[in-house]
Amino acid sequence: MSPTIDTKTPAVHHDLPTPDPESPTRTRQPYKLSTLCVAVENPSMKDQYGSSSVPIYQSATFKGVGNEYDYSRSGNPTRSHLEHHIAKISSAARAFAVSSGMAALDVILRLLRPGDEIIAGDDLYGGTNRLLTFIRTHVGVTVHHVDTTDPNAVIPFIHPTKTAMVLLESPTNPLLKIADLALISKEVKERAPNAIVVVDNTMMSPYLQRPLEHGADIVYDSATKYLSGHHDLMAGMITCNRDDLAKQIAFTINSVGNALTPIDCFLLLRGVKTMAVRMDRQQATSQLVATYLHSLGFKVHYPGLPDHPGREIHQRISDGNGAVLSFETGDKELSEKIVGSTRLWGISVSFGCVNSLISMPCVMSHASIDPAIRAARGLPEDLIRLCVGIEDSSDLLDDLEHALVDAGAIALSAQQNKYVRVPPGHAALNKAVEQLAIGSSNSRGVEHEWFVSAPGKVILFGEHAVVHGVTAIAASVDLRCYGLTSPRNDGKLSAHFNDINDFQAEWDIESLPWGASAPLGHHERHPEDLDQQLIEAIHSGPLRELGPDKDQARNAALAFLYMYIKLTSAERPSVHFDVRATLPVGAGLGSSASFSTCAATALLLLSHRVTLPSIPSPISAEHLHLSHHGRHALEKHNAEEANHWAFIAEKILHGNPSGVDNSVAVFGGALTYNRPGFGKPSGMESIQGFGSLRFLLTNSKVPRDTKKLVAGVGLMKQEQPEVVGSILDSIENISAQAKRSLADSTEFGRENLLRDLSVMISENHKHLVSLGVSHPSLEVIREKTAAPPYNLSTKLTGAGGGGCAVTLIPDDFSDTSMKDLLSELTECGFDPYLTSVGGSGLGILSPYPEHRNTSAKDIHPGQVTPPETPDEANTTDPGDSIKASFETKSLSELTGWAQNLGKWLYV
Ligand code: PLP
């Protein structure tokens, strides 16, 4: 049993008795929080010996019957002291100590029942997402993830009776986004009086923010962080003011048995005593660090900076800005160098410790997986997170400055007599200019072959529903398009599109309609609209002889020539452009976007608008322990340029593309997509950090009319708005959950990811069937793959036009089963492709001699894409032309052969 605390009045002014009797003439002011933190006094639990520090009652049982304590699962004196103390500093009537932050959330979520709905942030701590998924799939609770930084985004999801809980975090980690806890609590209470507002207060601690004062019903902290402060224990604290909730929480903890152990209670109590001094020091230094980085021109995320979005709200609901901040350098490699160059800042996960920590969220959590996937976006790839400790601030700033200088992020300006920021990409660009000899092309003369490749895409979740505003998830599929430009040097330009009716053409460069288009400056962006005059001129000039039966080839050649004329008017290189694909064309797998990406990139390379990373010196490579994968990655601005031009090519090919396919082709990995016009944020957001997944992609070869299928769903929605609406809601939930599962997979394990995805694939397919967009062949594929011994989950992919299905293949799926399944599907007349999803995006075969293979030993497995092991020991003399082999390799050999040529540079 816990000691009695007044549960009626919320303890906004803390009720610790003053040490001296009240003076009749001069009243005492309430103690400040820093005083309360250190004064661990519980008037109803006086120690028999007057011990200064609360003893550890390391006892499971207590003698006697009917006493205050009998069994430590139900109550323990050391724990009671801790709980009383935390309640006091949290403006709470009751507090409960459990074994971790996640255990705290687990106890809270057990307040829910099947059918309840939760509204939760969309940028929550990953562990929180994991647990929410669990209760969604196992308890039948609906979880709506919304952007809680915008209270208006929350309101539409509040249901007067169904909404049982609203779960908030502010600020978020690591982008320090702010949610208005007070306003959201008020809105929730007005609309759903029985809903409980829960706040994860870990980033702030009760010293800096006490959400119970702003209308929250329950607050929890990972006490592993600031409350304990030393990274020497795991603990979670739950606080609340409502007696009914306290009773249920106490019941769960007693039933489950996850209360904090006496020794950890003792350590946590000791930690809390110094929390105020630690945090004062930590946040004062954080302010200095944030201001310093901001003054250098870095993009800094810290609520203590005047331009931080949500700063005004944060100031209203909190007493400080905390000790976590993050900043962007504009260049991932540069960030890696900075992080690798610090000495005092320890490279570590977590926060809240007395020691200062530095991390690169993208690189650290993803270092062990496919390097190309790490480079996917979402959180800025170059983001550096700083968790400031209590070291001397000048030492911390000095160490950071040294690291910035060592990494080349800042340099001493003689003119200004101070360190100034080196523009991002500057050093690499200089080096690239030096090395232009490698790809040099003067007017007409090209000495070098450029070999590029880009993946296709599959829609993993949300097809059809995306048309109605639901989030779709698209991922790269490792069936690729390859493009090769080889020098001709005879004043001619030629192209061979092997997979588009074997289209071949040759043009006199001077005869191309150069006059129809104003040349584009080296740094000039292509305007939004296509140059119709140039399109007309190409149709009536170089393409005039292509008949109407050659529509596909005509469009592809148009896109190629359009970009050639726009991009290379200064160089006008004489080259042959050869394209091949291991990707079926016209199966709804993004073949046109991968073609567009290859053509755009080859032309950008020829016009020197895309530059390659320089080769780092062995010294810096050794010094940088963080990541050895990213060093040869294509820089972001190059990738963005390629994406921009691939989109232009897509516009030429499709008229009004969404931009999803080319983004996947360039950046690889996976992304979410929302169409504009549905009153919520639209656009793309990358999902990063999951290792590529094996999928079986089966082409049913049943051609279908995508437009008709889409229209059919539209009609059904008009006729049965409620039914279709609820299907769309369910699909939205699946997409949101899939996004979180993919993003959190590094932390929560691949096994969990595969299990979650498998459930979601089956669920999503069922919904697509209800929308009437499946067909018998797809159902045969689904049934065959679901049957024992395979037991696999399959769904149709794309709007249906391509007639393809995707089947998730677990890592432990045996080769024999795979072989059997492949032959069963082939026997039925389908084309199955075993492929991987979520792998690398755009790749360029490195032209550096040291990256070209002379033997198989130079293969870098981490950089391998596509994933298959090369099936033959091709050795290529670096002096050899790639062209001859490229044209003659069989489709099944192409992937392994390309991969074996040398190192591929990925985004
Ligand atoms: N909430 C937040 C914001 C966190 O950062 C963490 C841990 O990193 C947790 C909850 C989970 O806490 P614990 O690791 O103590 O279970």
Radius of gyration: 31 Å
Q: State the distance separating the first and last CA atoms.
A: 59 Å
Mean pLDDT: 85
The total of beta strands comes to: 27
- Main sheet overview: 9 strands, mixed
Uncertain ranges: 1-14, 365-378, 427-445, 616-631, 856-879
Q: How many helices in DSSP terms?
A: 30
Helix content: 25-40%
Q: What portion of the residues fall into strands of 2 or more residues?
A: 15-25%
* Chemical compounds bound to the protein: pyridoxal-5'-phosphate
Q: Judging from the principal axes of the Cα atoms, what is the shape?
A: globular
Keywords: Amino-acid biosynthesis, ATP-binding, Kinase, Lipid biosynthesis, Lipid metabolism, Lyase, Methionine biosynthesis, Nucleotide-binding, Pyridoxal phosphate, Transferase
Protein name: Cysteine-S-conjugate beta-lyase
Pfam families: Cys_Met_Meta_PP, GHMP_kinases_C, GHMP_kinases_N
Family: Belongs to the GHMP kinase family. Mevalonate kinase subfamily. Belongs to the trans-sulfuration enzymes family.
